[in-house]
Write a structure and sequence with these properties.
- The chain is an alpha/beta fold.
- It has a single domain, classed as Dihydrofolate Reductase, subunit A (3-Layer(aba) Sandwich).
- 18% of the residues lie in helices and 34% in strands.
- A hairpin with a 2-residue loop joins strand 2 and strand 3.
- The relative contact order is 0.25.
Length: 163
């Protein structure tokens, strides 16, 4: 199973239910990685999308503790156990956990690959991703050259779980 996330220098991922920054090449990489695949996200993350609608051309699975929550064109599950049961019908490599912070934290133990856009900047933030650089269970297996978008430098880094 995969995760995909953009983090700043402090492994921050968001502030007040918004992304820290929008980088077109990061969005393109996200689209390329997830189109035609299964994306798993929380309700709050879904509500940040345009018109709070699921992502097109993907199987969207929304995690919400509200038993009455429904979303057009998406599956809704209400617990990690229900999510894991639902995901059994898909190949691990086709599944991408896309946020937010609580979903990342809950699902990290089940994931073996994390695609990280590392942004070399510190933003004001209230949501964070676990720092994989400080976790001995993860190693970097691929890293792009440094990219630049206006005055923001960033790189694409692939982490894999050490078995």
């Amino acid at each position: 199973m995969n995760m995909i996330v953009a983090v700043d220098a402090n492994w921050a991922i968001g502030n007040k239910n918004n992304l820290l920054v929008r980088i077109p090449a990061d969005h393109k990489m996200f689209r390329n990685e997830t189109t035609g695949k299964v994306v798993v996200l929380g309700r709050k993350t879904l509500e940040t999308f345009p018109n709070a609608m699921p992502l097109p051309n993907r199987k969207n699975i929304i995690l919400s503790t509200n038993p009455d929550y429904t979303v057009k064109d998406a599956d809704v599950v209400h617990s990690i156990d229900e999510l894991l049961e639902n995901l059994k019908q898909y190949k691990d490599e086709e599944i991408y956990i896309i946020g937010g912070a609580s979903v990342y934290e809950a699902m990290l133990p089940y994931v073996d690959t994390v695609h990280v856009t590392k942004i070399d900047h510190e933003y004001e933030a209230d949501a964070f991703f676990p720092n994989l650089d400080k976790d001995e269970n993860w190693k970097i297996t691929a890293e792009s050259d440094e990219q630049v978008y206006f005055d923001i430098t960033y790189s694409f880094v692939k982490y894999e779980r050490i078995s």
